[in-house]
Design goal:
The structure holds 2 protein chains of 2 kinds. By secondary structure, chain A is mainly α. Chain A has 10 helices and 4 strands, in the order αββααααββααααα. Chain A has a two-stranded antiparallel sheet. In chain A, strands 3-4 form a two-stranded antiparallel ribbon. The relative contact order of chain A is 0.12. By secondary structure, chain B is of the alpha/beta class. Chain B has 2 domains: about 190 residues, P-loop containing nucleotide triphosphate hydrolases (Rossmann fold, 3-Layer(aba) Sandwich); about 70 residues, no CATH class. The two termini of chain B are about 35 Å apart. Classes of the chains: A mainly alpha, B alpha/beta.
C-alpha cells in the first residue's frame, strides 16, 4: 500500500520534472534573443532560434521520419539500435568497473598501506581527459595479443566505460566497508571471527547503503565513458557515433542530433534503473531512515 | 577452578609518549565459577579496559590473564565467553533469530542446530514470537534482551557485559536486571559486569569491585550480603541500602583522593 503510493508519487514527480524542463525550454525560445545574448562581445546566452534550439515538438516528430531522405529506416529505429549497441558495451564496462572497483575497495579496506598509496592515484586517474585517453586505449588494445585472443575494437570503448565506472564504485564501497560500527567490529573480534568472515557477515552488509548510490554513479559513468569513446574513436554502431554524424547536419536538420542525444540520456537512465531495482531488493528489510 | 584470573595486569596506552595514559596498573582479581562481579568506578578508572583485557580485545602491557584456566586468547578462540555492550549492536539486515545465530554460524554449526538453539535462546529471553522480525522493529529493551541471547547462544560459561543497560530507561532497566539474574541463574553463567550505577551493581552482584582513576586500579572489593535469591522486594530491603552505602563510601574514597571534574562527572552519570 505504502509502496504503491511511493511509486505513484515518484512517477508523478518524474512527469512533472520533464514537463518543467520542456516548459523552460519553450519559454526561453519565446523570450530569449534570437541571435544569442552578447555581453562585452562575449556570448553568454544561447541563441533561441530554431537552428540552435529546435521546438520540442520538432525534435519528437523527427523520430518518426526517416534517418536520411529516401531511406525507409525511421530514425527511432536507428537510435534504438544504436542505444542497444551502446547499452551492451556499457554493461560490459559497468561489470568490469564493478569488479575492479569492489576489488580495489576490499584491498584498500584490508591494507591501510594500499589505501594510502593507491587512493591518490585513483583520484588522479579521474583527472585524465577521457578524450585524450580513448585513442591511446584503442592503439594499446590493437597491439595486445594474448594467445588467439584478438582485441575487438568495441572492447576499447567498454574499457573507457570501466575507467569512469570503477572510481565512484571503489570510493563508495571503501567508505561503506569502513562504515561498520566499531562496536560491531569488536563483537566480531570477540567471536574470534576471521577477516573474511567479518568482511562477508558484517562489512559488506553494512556497506550496502553506501554501495548503491556509488553503483548508480558508476552505471551512468560507464555510459558516458562508452559514448565519449565512440565519439572520439569513431566506433560504428553506437549512439556516440550517431551523435557526431547527426551533429554535422545540425544546420540543415537541427532536430536530428537531439534524437541521438536523448537516446544517450535514456541509456543512462536505463542503467541507473537497473541499480535502482537492485536497491529496492537489497534494502527491503532495512530500517527506512538508513536508506540513502 | 576460577572463571577469571587477573594477575598483576597493567595496561599503559601510548607508553613513553607525552600522551601516556596509565589505564590500569597492577590489577589482581579472581572471579569464581557462577559468581556475579560488577566493576564500578568513575570515568577513566579502567573498568572497560579491564573487561576488554579479559575479553582479549586488548593486550595487557604486563601481567597475565586467564579464563577457565586457559590464556585469554585461547578462551576467545574457543568462544568461552559471550559479550554484550551498551548498544545492543544487532545487525539491521538479519532477523532476530539470525542475529542470535551469528556466533554459531562463525563456529560452523549446521543450519538446523543453529535454528534450534536460536529458538531455545528466544524462549530464555521470553521473546519467541519475535524470531522473524528485524531488530529495528523492536524496542531498546527487547533489542538488549536479544543481544544477551546472542551473547549466550553458544552457552559460554562466562558473560562479559559493558554497561548493557546504560541506554535504557529506569523501568526497563530494573526489569532487565531481574531478567539477567533469572537468565544467569538458569544457565549458571559467570558474569563480569561494568556499570556506572551503584544500585544496579548492588542488586546484581555477589561482589562489587570499586575502581579509581589515574592510574586505573582496584581500591576495594565489597561483598554484597543479600543472599542468592533476589527479587523486587530486595530493592526495598534494609540490606540493599546498607550495601549501597558501603559501595558509595568506597567510591567516595576514590573521589577524595583524586577529586577532579572527570571523576565527579563519572559518578553523576547515574
Amino acid at each position: 500500500m505504502n509502496f504503491a503510493r511511493r511509486v505513484a508519487y515518484r512517477t508523478a514527480m518524474f512527469i512533472v520534472s520533464i514537463f518543467s524542463v520542456v516548459a523552460i525550454w519553450e519559454l526561453y525560445k519565446i523570450i530569449g534573443p534570437q541571435d544569442g545574448g552578447k555581453f562585452f562581445g562575449v556570448s553568454v546566452l544561447p541563441r533561441a532560434n530554431n537552428t540552435a534550439m529546435p521546438h520540442v515538438s520538432t525534435m519528437l516528430s523527427r523520430y518518426s521520419r526517416p534517418e536520411v531522405r529516401g531511406s525507409d529506416k525511421k530514425i527511432w529505429a536507428v537510435v534504438l539500435s544504436g542505444a542497444w549497441f551502446s547499452l551492451r558495451l556499457s554493461l560490459v564496462g559497468f561489470f568490469l568497473g564493478t569488479t575492479i572497483g569492489v576489488g580495489l575497495a576490499v584491498l584498500m579496506a584490508r591494507f591501510k598501506i594500499v589505501q594510502r598509496g593507491l587512493l591518490p592515484y585513483l583520484v588522479m586517474s579521474q583527472t585524465v581527459p577521457l578524450i585524450a585517453l580513448a585513442p591511446l586505449v584503442v592503439s594499446w588494445g590493437g597491439k595486445l595479443e594474448i594467445g588467439s585472443f584478438v582485441w575487438p575494437r568495441w572492447l576499447s570503448a567498454s574499457i573507457l566505460g570501466t575507467f569512469l565506472a570503477f572510481f565512484p564504485i571503489a570510493v563508495g564501497t571503501l567508505r561503506g566497508l569502513s562504515s561498520a560500527p566499531a562496536a560491531a567490529v569488536e563483537l566480531m573480534e570477540s567471536y574470534a571471527a576471521s577477516w573474511k568472515q567479518t568482511l562477508f557477515k558484517l562489512r559488506f552488509p553494512a556497506a550496502v547503503p553506501f554501495m548503491v548510490p556509488a553503483f548508480k554513479l558508476g552505471a551512468s559513468g560507464a555510459v558516458v565513458g562508452v559514448v565519449v569513446a565512440e565519439i572520439s574513436t569513431g566506433l560504428k554502431g553506437g549512439i556516440g557515433r550517431l551523435i557526431i554524424e547527426y551533429a554535422r547536419e545540425a544546420t540543415g536538420d537541427p532536430a536530428k542530433v537531439f534524437t541521438a542525444v536523448f537516446g544517450a540520456a535514456a541509456l543512462g537512465l536505463v542503467m541507473a534503473g537497473f541499480v535502482a531495482i537492485s536497491d529496492v531488493f537489497l534494502m527491503r528489510n532495512r530500517p527506512k531512515e538508513s536508506s540513502i | 577452578m576460577s572463571a577469571v584470573e587477573v594477575i598483576g595486569a597493567s595496561k599503559i596506552f601510548n607508553q613513553g609518549k607525552a600522551q601516556q595514559v596509565d589505564a590500569l596498573v597492577d590489577v589482581n582479581l579472581t572471579v569464581n565459577q557462577g559468581e556475579f562481579v560488577s566493576l564500578i568506578g568513575p570515568s577513566g578508572c579502567g573498568k572497560s579496559t579491564l573487561l576488554r583485557l579479559i575479553a582479549n580485545l586488548l593486550e595487557p602491557t604486563s601481567g597475565s590473564l586467564m579464563v577457565n584456566n586457559k590464556t585469554v586468547s585461547q578462551a576467545r578462540l574457543d568462544q568461552d565467553y559471550g559479550m554484550a555492550f551498551q548498544q545492543a549492536g544487532l545487525f539491521d539486515w538479519r532477523t532476530v533469530s539470525k542475529n542470535i545465530e551469528l556466533p554459531l554460524e562463525l563456529k560452523g554449526w549446521d543450519k538446523e542446530k543453529r535454528a534450534a538453539r536460536a529458538a531455545e535462546m528466544l524462549e530464555l529471553v521470553k521473546l519467541p514470537e519475535f524470531a522473524n522480525l528485524y531488530p529495528w522493529q523492536l524496542s531498546g529493551g527487547m533489542q538488549q534482551r536479544i543481544a544477551i541471547a546472542r551473547a549466550l547462544a553458544a552457552h559460554p560459561p562466562l558473560l562479559l557485559m559493558d554497561e548493557p543497560f546504560g541506554a535504557l530507561d529506569e523501568m526497563t532497566r530494573e526489569y532487565m536486571q531481574g531478567e539477567l539474574l533469572r537468565i544467569c541463574g538458569e544457565t549458571a553463567t559467570t558474569v563480569v559486569f561494568v556499570t556506572h550505577s551503584i544500585p544496579e551493581a548492588v542488586y546484581l552482584s555477589n561482589r562489587v569491585v570499586v575502581m579509581s582513576p589515574r592510574p586505573g586500579r582496584i581500591t576495594s572489593v565489597i561483598d554484597v550480603d543479600l543472599g542468592a535469591k533476589r527479587n523486587e522486594d530486595t530493592r526495598a530491603a534494609d540490606g540493599f541500602f546498607r550495601n549501597i552505602t558501603a559501595v558509595r563510601e568506597a567510591l567516595r574514597g576514590t573521589q577524595a583522593e583524586h577529586a577532579s571534574a572527570n571523576a565527579i562527572r563519572g559518578l553523576e552519570d547515574r
